[in-house]
Amino acid sequence: MAALFPDSFYVQLRDWFRQNARALPWRGTSDPYAIMVSEFMLQQTQVATVIPYFNRWMNQFPTVQSLAAASEQDVLSLWQGLGYYSRAKNLHWTSKEIGDRFPDNLADMKKLPGMGDYTAGAILTFSRNARVPIVDANIARVLARLFDFQKPIDSTDGRAKIWAYAAQLLPKENAGEFNAALMELGALICTPRPKCAECPVTTHCLAFQAGNPVRLPVKLPKAAVTQKVERALFISNGDLIALVQRTQNPWKNMWVLPPMTHEPDVLEMPVVSHKYGITRYRVTLEIYHAKSTAVGVRWCNPLELESLPIPSPHRRVLEALGSGVSQR
Q1: What residues contact residue 277 under an 8 Å CB cut-off, 6+ apart?
Q2: Tally: H helices and E strands in the chain
Q3: Per-residue pLDDT band at 265 (split at 50, 70, 90)
Q4: Whether the Cβ atoms of residue 298 and residue 243 lie closer than 8 Å to each other
Q5: Using CB atoms within 10 A of its CB, is residue 253 exposed (0-12), middle (13-18) or buried (19+)?
Q6: Strand order in the sheet with 226-234
């Protein structure tokens, strides 16, 4: 395809990136494993949140082989607090599939667990400077504005068009740096409320020239949020707390407070409640004291509570109840 923008676009974006790029711990390395870990963690999670998790992870699992040899419980325990635990499981399974050699092409990379178009392409372009397009939320926003794209970017046709723009914009050389620069532009300048006065490529931006960058990108209407109530039991025996292991998603194989299987008495009040969001649900987690002896539970002391993989909502209510568990 013919180039869409002149050389000045690439030079201005490159120079801006080299002067303003954030010093992130997964930058400056060509290690595909470190890049893979960062990309799995960054899915639906902000950079500032990911950085300490990434550093702890690489300290405990410095190679893909060390991750492959780890137990799922250790993996989930180190991941807890990041949410979307299927990412951790996919990362663990992927490490077992990789063995001693990372795939060197997009088709093979996408065969690995949890590898969509973006993640597979990001690992290849950032570790091997591969000339492959990538589109995350930041890049999609930049491209929608650069091309004054008026259709929903999360529709089937809109998504395909944004990916086509990303492919057509790729330079012949240094594609990895270009992709990183485009992503950084979206993270720092071309944000939901764009800082057009600071943008290095406004002369090439069709939305800026049309005077409507803030209205883009267009997205489909959001699905309605459903309110939901979950109830669980706080059962203690001295300093021991009863937990059960989940057998289904969400939080499969993680440890939670035992579910309450009956409706509470009209006079019975929760001792603590916590609201959290998951997919399209807004959940109120209500915790009730139970005095009866629990059967089929694991009795955990404070040290075990610290080391077990416990999802954040349950960890937060345990902290609120003074059980000795802390947030991570």
Answers
A1: 225, 283
A2: 14, 7
A3: confident
A4: yes
A5: middle
A6: 226-234, 281-289, 272-278
Pairing of strands 298-300, 240-245: antiparallel
Preceding peptide of 250 cis, ω within 30°: yes
What is the length of the chain? Answer: 328
Per-residue confidence (pLDDT) for residue 327, from 0 to 100: 57
Q: Coil, strand or helix: which one is 189?
A: coil
Do the Cβ atoms of 227 and 304 come closer than 8 Å?
no
Cβ proximity of 287 and 257 under 8 Å:
yes
CA atoms within 13 A on the CB side of 214: 6
Q: Per the structure block, which two tokens stand in for 126?
A: 């950032």
Q: Give just the sign of the alpha carbon dihedral 115, 118, 124, 126.
A: negative
Q: Which residues are catalytic?
A: 39
Asked if the model's pLDDT at residue 325 lies above 80, the reply is: no
Predicted pLDDT of residue 323 = 74
The Cα–Cα gap between 283 and 324 comes to: 24
* pLDDT tens for each residue of 109-125: 999 999 999 999 999 99
Residue 1 pLDDT > 50, yes or no? no
Cis peptide before 264 (omega within 30 of 0): no
In this structure, the strands spanning 240-245 and 281-289 are unpaired
Q: Which amino acid is at 37?
A: V
Report yes or no on whether pTM surpasses 0.85. Answer: yes
